[in-house]
Amino acid sequence: MSGPLLQVRDAACVRGGRRLFAGLGLALAAGEAALVTGPNGTGKSSLVRMIAGLLPVAEGSVTVNARCALLAEQPSLDAELPLAKALGFWAAIDGGDVAAALAAVGLAGLAPVPVRFLSTGQRRRAGIARVLASNAPLWLLDEPANGLDAASVAVLEGLIAAHRAGGGAVLVATHLPVALPGAHEIRLGEGA
Ligand SMILES: Nc1ncnc2c1ncn2[C@@H]1O[C@H](COP(=O)(O)OP(=O)(O)OP(=O)(O)O)[C@@H](O)[C@H]1O
């Protein structure tokens, strides 16, 4: 495949009649990363959702040339199911390796535990495992470090680095430090 996995051109986002940002451009090729930062309410999550196709693009264009995996605030896992089975629901669609993904985020031991019993940080790591098991080339991670301890942030950073080294790309929206060497930086300002 040639060309960027993600191309955002002159994009604007409007929510509740308010323009959050405009004129935003970004291209992510294989191996690249984007770091989206900015104060609360400036549109970081909105940008992620817009790229994921969950919010309309008010102006400009968003072109996604690869399958993408979204880590949103909720892990999108059935709270009643054991963790491995909840991830298995998605793996049945995406074809991913649940056991390997759980091991990668240090949750192998919790595979039989219902999702509702997971702690905040474990739940976030479960969401990261879902992204990992998706085999999607483009990762869209909204606040992936929320609730994670320092060791888990380091694991996250390692997983992102490995994903990029394997030809993937990632966009991370965060108010917490996440090391993304060589990332394109997008700083969203105050909302309009
Ligand atoms: N459904 C909605 N209708 C109207 N406005 C909304 C809606 N959802 C979010 N907003 C507004 O859009 C703005 C941007 O929200 P968003 O969640 O993208 O910000 P953020 O930069 O991710 O913030 P935070 O750092 O607090 O997570 C906020 O002012 C928010 O109130």
What secondary-structure arrangement, pairings included, does this model have?
Layout: E1 6-15, E2 18-28, E3 33-37, H1 44-51, E4 59-64, E5 68-71, H2 83-94, H3 98-104, H4 120-133, E6 138-142, H5 150-165, E7 169-173, E8 184-187
Parallel strand pairs: 3-7, 3-8, 5-6, 6-7
Antiparallel strand pairs: 1-2, 1-4
Helix pairs in contact: 2-4, 3-4
The structure holds adenosine-5'-triphosphate.
GO molecular function: ATP binding
Protein name: Heme ABC exporter ATP-binding protein CcmA
Organism: Sphingomonas canadensis
Describe the structure.
- With about 190 residues, the protein is α/β, with parallel strands linked by helices.
- It has a domain at about 1-65 and about 140-145 and about 170-190: P-loop containing nucleotide triphosphate hydrolases (Rossmann fold).
- The protein is about 30% helix and about 25% strand.
- The chain has five helices and eight strands; from the N terminus they run βββαββαααβαββ.
- The protein has helices at about 45-50, 85-95, 100-105, 120-135, 150-165, and strands at about 5-15, 20-30, 35, 60-65, 70, 140, 170-175, 185.
- The strands form two sheets. It has a five-stranded parallel β-sheet with strand order 5-6-7-3-8, with helices on both faces. It has a three-stranded antiparallel β-sheet with strand order 2-1-4, covered by helices on one side.
- Strand 1 and strand 2 (about 20-30) form a beta hairpin.
- Helix 2 packs parallel to helix 4 (about 120-135) and helix 3 packs across helix 4 (about 120-135).
- The mean pLDDT is about 95.
- One of its GO terms (molecular function) is ATP binding.
- It comes from Sphingomonas canadensis.
- InterPro entries: AAA+_ATPase, ABC_transporter-like_ATP-bd, ABC_transptr_haem_export_CcmA, P-loop_NTPase.
